[in-house]
Amino acid sequence: MLNIIMLNRPFPKSRAETELDDFELVFSALSHEDRRRILVVLLGRGGQMTAGEIVQRFTSSWPTMTRHLHILEHAGLIVVEKRGRERHYILQAKRMSKVLQSWNQYFSEVENES
């Protein structure tokens, strides 16, 4: 019953709730080794690669890699641009940086209180 009330509440989420949702999305996406490696590969290749170029660098199957890419996209860590028949995946390093800085800020505030 409580979950239903929370989902139908008439007021917007607080800043803290929004940040916690961002943390959950990003840290969930980063929880798998291959997804972390995809981000590092994208960073090392100038922040942009086609799906085929990404898949070639891993031993996982195409459907598995596609699932990983969708999870990263959902977390806002990459965006996809269709160019003709190709899908280009573009790293969103600022998004990663923003979420990690917010996370660290919570703990640096606690550290300063100690």
Layout of secondary structure:
Layout: H1 2-7, H2 15-29, H3 33-44, E1 48-50, H4 51-56, H5 62-74, E2 78-83, E3 86-91, H6 93-113
Antiparallel strand pairs: 1-3, 2-3
Helix pairs in contact: 2-6
Mean pLDDT: 89
Please count the beta strands (DSSP E, at least 2 residues each): 3
* Unreliable sequence segments: 1-5
Q: Remind me, CATH topology?
A: Arc Repressor Mutant, subunit A
Determine the number of helices (DSSP H or I, runs of at least 4 residues): 6
Reported for the largest beta sheet, the result is: 3 strands, antiparallel
**CA-based gyration radius:** 17 Å
Helix fraction bin: 55-70%
Q: Quickly count the domains.
A: 1
CATH class membership? Mainly Alpha
> Any idea what the shape is?
elongated
What keywords describe this structure?
114 residues, alpha+beta, Arc Repressor Mutant, subunit A
Characterization of this structure:
This protein is α+β, with helices and mostly antiparallel strands and 114 residues long. Helices cover 64% and strands 13% of the residues. The protein is built from six helices and three strands; from the N terminus they run αααβααββα. A three-stranded antiparallel β-sheet has the order 1-3-2. Helix 2 (15-29) packs across helix 6 (93-113). The longest helix has 21 residues, at 93-113. It is elongated and about 50 Å long.
Outline of the structure:
This protein is an alpha+beta fold and 114 residues long. The chain has helices at residues 2-7, 15-29, 33-44, 51-56, 62-74, 93-113; strands spanning 48-50, 78-83, 86-91.
